[in-house]
Amino acid sequence: MQNTLMQMTLATPEVQSVPSIASSAMFVELSISTWTGRKLDKRATKETTQANGADDRAGSFHKKLLGDCAELDALHKFAGNVRTFHYHSTMPWSDMGMRLLPTSAYMDYHNEITRLEQEFHKLTNDFLTAYQWAQGEAQLKLGNLFSTDDYPLADVLAGKFKFRYAYQIIPDAGDFRLNIGQDAAQYLQSQYQQHYTQQLTNAMNDVWQRTYDSLRHMSEKLDYPDKEDKATRKIFRDSLVDNVKDMMGLLIKFNITNDVKMDNMRVALEDAMYGVSPEALREDDDFRAETKRKVDAVLSNMKW
Known about the structure:
Elements: H1 4-7, E1 25-33, E2 38-40, H2 42-51, E3 62-64, H3 70-89, E4 91-92, E5 99-102, H4 106-142, H5 154-158, E6 162-168, H6 182-221, H7 239-253, H8 260-272, H9 278-283, H10 285-300
Antiparallel strand pairs: 1-5, 1-6, 2-3, 4-5
Helix pairs in contact: 3-4, 6-7, 6-10, 7-8, 8-10
């Protein structure tokens, strides 16, 4: 299925002017790094391509230096989950990594990110404790592919695991303090205002798109004939409902420009989801059909 933005134009909130969001949001940046535990083996790559009569650039052979190390796998999975939380809890802003965090969501975000940071350090310590043993196990599994040069010393390895986050205030679009000529300052201020407006529009549109995607997914999962055998109906998880209700909360926290259209959407969504539960949708055909009708009505208001 093609991306929904390619299929239609969403009637997203428009940022007509340059509203100041300095008091309603802040920048937050998250950086997580881990040791991959993988390395390109040039010798094995060359031997493999030559043995198969292939060009040297036909492929490459990467070693899993610790094999299936549970502690390292847990760290990699955890880091991915933290990034998912970060992206879900914030709004896009800069290609350089800065994202918008509404001030109304700050405490929830900060409490969770600090908890995740502590868990990350615990998992890192668990891995470092198991490192020597895992290295010995890897030597047995890798055979002639094993090389001690591939394995960093413990203190060097510890430095490869980092968890950083930082908050930064948002400069007001009209606050341009540069000790340069007036004409240059006006030009740069105009350029920044254009960039500021575009980035803010992108951030608000991201919230709109997330809402649309969750509703479209629900509509699709609830779309089956009333008289169809229940055993053959589309199966959905409880998260189908949870994700939509979660977006209702985000529409409040992420409405940093006090956009009327977004607030109206929240009200319509709350009405559509009133009393909705996974159990009710599975057991009550009439309620399921009515819920789908309401969800589809909300979706139709999100399109041009």
